[in-house]
Amino acid sequence: MATTQQVPAQREINPDALNALIGRAVQDMGAALQAPLILIGDKLGLYRAMGDGKPMTSKALAKKTGTSERYIREWLNANAAGQLVQYDAEKDEFHMTPEQAMVMAQDDSPVHLPGFYHMLASVVKDEEKLTKIYKTGKGMGWHEHEKGLFEGCERFFRPGYLASLVSSWIPSLEGVEAKLKEGARVADIGCGHGASTLLMAKAYPKSTFIGFDYHKPSIEKAREKAKAAGMADRVTFEVAPAKDFPGKDYDLVAFFDCLHDMGDPVGAAKHVRSTLAPGGTWMIVEPFANDTDAANHNPVGRIFYSASATICVPCSLAQEVGMGLGAQAGPARLEKVARDGGFGSFKKATETPFNMVFEARA
Asked: Which helix (H) or strand (E) element contains residue 332?
């Protein structure tokens, strides 16, 4: 028996809206295709070699970095088109402005960008795995991702920590900075490669710090970094999950951009409460978010929802409970986690365009 195919009704196209969408897509396509070039530039030291701002030809940059001039010429032109370097057409030379160097060439800059692209490359390499779990509903653990994610996340978040952790986030917590200056016990949960742990330890030399993470390779890397920084005598790193890390009487327990990744954040909150010293503080740093989805439909929300859809929610769904908070959970849901975990006091201490800092007490 023959069937009649339903033809979708034609809807009127607004040419201006179509052209605007295509224009945004062209910008996105250029940014996406430039991503591997940013990785290449970071890995080969190309941006660092230009960081002093001195003009150079493609031949000079290739010689300085031990690379092939023909590839470098194309790389430089792509970066000039993307406004990451400047080009002098008369002299056929390229250079970086102080602002471009701060963003692309300086590893310890609070606005360093290339680390993000290591994370991006990792999730792109994992696309086939992610597509599969979108059909099955299963999770994908942090440890199951391509290895670039681990370095990428540290380098993506570290600039924000450099800019704000010691200067504003810790001072925003009631009485915490004074304790750290006098000598306190601190646990940093989900520490990864230890960027946040080591920044705090450097700022507060009288305090002792323990970083915990369930991911053994990250803990091994954190130990190497502590040794290189000369802080291995008072900063230790141990393999342990958020719901079962050892120790008692911590004056401060910190969670940096990791609570939303956990399968059972309420269980983690209960355990944190049991480890705090009297008057101790739980510091929760989370990606900036509003409480409604629509309020997060903006450039920052676009980044965090995309990370959440490829990293954070899969990570949570791979664990017990699998709450799947996501990177845009918002203050209200985070407060419910803390209060369900037994905390009687919860408040937002401060915020930046990219992070929210909460203070919870028993």
From this structure: helix 331-340
Buried residues in 202-224 as b, exposed as e (16+ CB within 10 A): eebeebbbbbbbbbeebbebbbe
Neighbours of 318 (CB within 10 A): 18
Sign, CA dihedral 103-108-109-111, equals: positive
DSSP labels for 223-289?
A: HHHHHHTT-TTTEEEEE--TTS---S-EEEEEEES-GGG-S-HHHHHHHHHHHEEEEEEEEEEEE--
End-to-end Cα, the chain, rounded Å: 70
The angle that helices 148-164 and 115-125 make with each other, rounded to 10 degrees, is 150
Residue with tokens 């033809």: 7
User: What is the full DSSP assignment across 6-64?
Assistant: PPPPP----HHHHHHHHHHHHHHHHHHHHHHHHHHHHHTTHHHHHTT---B-HHHHHHH
Tens-digit pLDDT string for the chain (362 aa):
555 667 677 899 999 999 999 999 999 999 999 999 999 999 999 999 999 999 999 999 999 999 999 999 999 999 999 999 999 999 999 999 999 999 999 998 999 999 999 999 999 999 999 999 999 999 999 999 999 999 999 999 999 999 999 999 999 999 999 999 999 999 999 999 999 999 999 999 999 999 999 999 999 999 999 999 999 998 999 999 999 999 999 999 999 999 999 999 999 999 999 999 999 999 999 999 999 999 999 999 999 999 999 999 999 999 999 999 999 999 999 999 999 999 999 999 999 999 999 999 99
Q: Is 0.85 surpassed by the pTM of this model?
A: yes
Give me 131's structure tokens: 């597509």
Which domains does the chain possess?
A: 15-106 (1.10.10.10), 117-361 (3.40.50.150)
Neighbour-count burial of 44, counting CB atoms closer than 10 A to its CB (0-12 exposed, 13-18 middle, 19+ buried): middle
Neighbours of 3 (CB within 10 A): 5
